[in-house]
Batch of 3 targets.
Target 1
Amino acid sequence: MSASRYSYIGGFDGTSNVEAAAEFDIPCAGTHAHSFVQSVTGFEDLQTRELVTAEGKTVDFVSIVLEKLDALGFKGKTNQGELAAFTAYAQAFPDGFLAPRRHV
């Protein structure tokens, strides 16, 4: 709870901790059911590989995710189903997905 509060004070846009969001009036974002993550086995389960950017450009988001994974040195070291689930969530809720804004 305190980590959510102090992160928000420190500049984060919100928290995925629903209880902290309610108690400290912090915007809640980035939450989803654990069962959703478990239901995805790989990128072949995604409805699309694409994402429309804020500028209206359609990009192959899965390719971007995989390129970043490789650039960070995590290729072959992650659960593909979990990665695909988080990718699908980011596609569905691009304005509500919490992720670092650091570029590789």
Target 2
Amino acid sequence: LFRTVAMMVPDYAMIAEIMLYSFGFVNARPMSIKITTTYKLCSEQLSSQFHYDYGMRAVKAVLSAAGNLKLQFPEEDEGVLILRAIVDVNLPKFLSHDVPLFNGIISDLFPGISLPEPDYEELFTNATKVCAERNLQPTKLFMEKLAQMYEMMIVRHGFMLVGEPF
């Protein structure tokens, strides 16, 4: 009637390594370890929030983002691509008091790597026009959240905005 079942926790680093190799990464093993270590440290050091996810779904989102970045920038340093993917996927969902802790984690795991500033000129120009038409102020924080929302739209199939409208 009842059969015994053996289960084990999946090896996220190995799954990430294989996926990174399939995207064309040469240094997939150290990069996969950095991705999984990032989530391990985040789960230990950041505050506990209902919407924070450090499981396979989060790792898969970073891997997909890294794969897309590798397609767009095949000659870019792989550490920069992985760091950009981690930041783009995770930073928008963190609360303001967790952001400095997250920045500390990634600066420890990716020493000496600084991210180039993405070019949002066209996005910001059009957003400023729309804000002027609707009598809104395009503050620095508003534009930053707009850029984060844009990055989330590229990475995820769907997402939800939560909070006060203004």
Target 3
Amino acid sequence: MLNVRRESVKFDSGMCFQLKELAPGQIDMAGWRAVPEKSNPEAIVWRNVANPVQVCSWFLEDDLDRPAAEMEGIDARNIIEGKRTRQKVDYRALERQIEAEERGQQDVFSDASSD
């Protein structure tokens, strides 16, 4: 297992490395280069520059499984699982509702003496 904080990578074994951005989208770490075409949000695929046949992957660990102390100020209640979807909105009905509420508020503040 490993932890990545900014450009620093620390493995559970205690080994530490620095990530280097060689060019936009091209990241290197100790002779291993990230392969963007094979990577995705859940896994980063690395290829050894000296021996391109060697490949390894880093997989994202679910943050909800981590102890709160490791999450450093992240409120787990704010983590959304799954894909967010927006509800369909009937803007005409919404506009009518807002107009009706505004008319209702105007009536609340008027008094009969000014008529």
